[in-house]
Amino acid sequence: MKYGIIDIGSNTMRLVIYEQSKSGRLRERENVKIAARLRNYLTEDGWFTEEGLHVLLDGLLTFQDVTRFHRLHDVKCVATATIRQARNRDDIVRIVAERTDFHIRILSEYEEAYYGFLAVIQSTSFYEGITIDIGGGSTEVTYFYNRELVEYHSFPFGALSLKREFVAGNVPTDEELQTLRAYVEKQFQSLPWLKQRRLPIIAIGGSARNVVQVHQMLQNYPIAGIHQYEMNREHIIRVKKYLRALTFEQLQKVEALSKDRADLIIPAVEVFQTLYETVDATMFILSRKGLRDGIFYEQFGPIIFPSVLDESFFELAQDYEVNTNHVQHVLKLVIQLFEQMRSLSLFPLTGEDLVLLKRATHVFYLGQYVDEEASSQHTFYLLANRTIDGLSHRDRVQLALVASFKNKTLFKQYVQPFHTWFTRAEQKKLRFLGALLKFAYSLNDTKRNIVNRLQLDMQQETIVIHIFCSQSFKAEEYQAEKHKKHVEKMLKRPIQLQFHLEG
């Protein structure tokens, strides 16, 4: 099944087509954007001009060609600030209904804020935070606690309206930027629930997306994906300084920046920095999921998933046809190995390490779906570069390193671009967890779930692992003997395997 939604914003119009994946989640298949800048057609006294209506209809008819090609029916069509604020909005809705396939639903300020908030909590694991969505004509902020919306506000400014009001040319002068900042700061200071909250800010929308992309470009970011990308105040300032040093012509050529946002990006960055300082934020995170996703989350899923991360792993299992029965058995074995090694103080391990190990068990060698021979390489690439809702980029790379473990050489190759992300001790631990997981999987090589339990003993300097089986274990014994060497190297102790057949 395919579903379509048209988002008529103040700066851009978008048609997004979603398709339900094997897991039942909606996945974006088409994303058609038009830089309509409808805000420019809203007069000072609030009338949407004939020229603006022509631009709107022209864009919608373009979308109509696409939706008819895909045979989409009942396409959702929503409009935000510019149409909402137009005094002749009823005429706009009527004319669109008469001349196109679409019926515009004008979102209220609350609905616009709510759907952005809903997208954030459905795609991240934050339980408390501030969200911001800078559009062309309005800016929505919310405060949520325990994953419930507590406060919201819609400011009557966006990146496009700020540029029109405060910036005479294509890029702001120092004086213009100072005046713009003072205005935005006064607006934010008017909300007591924003000030000095010391919470993460989760940003939505094209301006935030472009800020992240520029920052990733500046540091040659080693993996793909922008969802849940984290920045701090210094990172935002670095992006602003870089952009401020460029001419408008140079801004238009920045690869990480949409050309149609070249004149809007600096005012937007100023808004983000001002909000960061008002909130005294702990971090600035991008949510790639926004208003459009929030509307579909409300229609197709529970209002709030019990666990975003659990939902993500379920989706991975469905998409890559993971043998969940096999995974559950290996999970039981790897937990026994982990707990007994920790109790014998064979390696410094924590509860957080066990959480990571459990996650990695669910996606170990997931890349064999693509190619059996290169399953390790594909596993690392897929997990490191795929958006996994609920995991930060650092956590995603950790997961990829453990779940793709094959040997020391490949591990070093994988971790090399991230050597500044992890200390040497952390890298050693990740390698150990990977080796332990690989060994546990060897104990269910035939996927018959024949190993009932494990018992670890120490005999002088030798680790003895007793493996109690319900059926013939020759295949498992061969694989376990082959793969125990990776654990031995990490522990710097010999391991002796003793298989037992029990009734």
UniProtKB/TrEMBL annotation:
<protein>
    <submittedName>
        <fullName>Exopolyphosphatase/pppGpp-phosphohydrolase</fullName>
    </submittedName>
</protein>
<dbReference type="GO" id="GO:0016787">
    <property type="term" value="F:hydrolase activity"/>
</dbReference>
<keyword id="KW-0378">Hydrolase</keyword>
<dbReference type="InterPro" id="IPR043129">
    <property type="entry name" value="ATPase_NBD"/>
</dbReference>
<comment type="similarity">
    <text>Belongs to the GppA/Ppx family.</text>
</comment>
<dbReference type="InterPro" id="IPR048950">
    <property type="entry name" value="Ppx_GppA_C"/>
</dbReference>
<dbReference type="InterPro" id="IPR050273">
    <property type="entry name" value="GppA/Ppx_hydrolase"/>
</dbReference>
<dbReference type="GO" id="GO:0006357">
    <property type="term" value="P:regulation of transcription by RNA polymerase II"/>
</dbReference>
<feature type="domain" description="Ppx/GppA phosphatase C-terminal">
    <location>
        <begin position="312"/>
        <end position="475"/>
    </location>
</feature>
<dbReference type="InterPro" id="IPR003695">
    <property type="entry name" value="Ppx_GppA_N"/>
</dbReference>
<dbReference type="Pfam" id="PF21447">
    <property type="entry name" value="Ppx-GppA_III"/>
</dbReference>
<feature type="domain" description="Ppx/GppA phosphatase N-terminal">
    <location>
        <begin position="33"/>
        <end position="299"/>
    </location>
</feature>
<dbReference type="Pfam" id="PF02541">
    <property type="entry name" value="Ppx-GppA"/>
</dbReference>
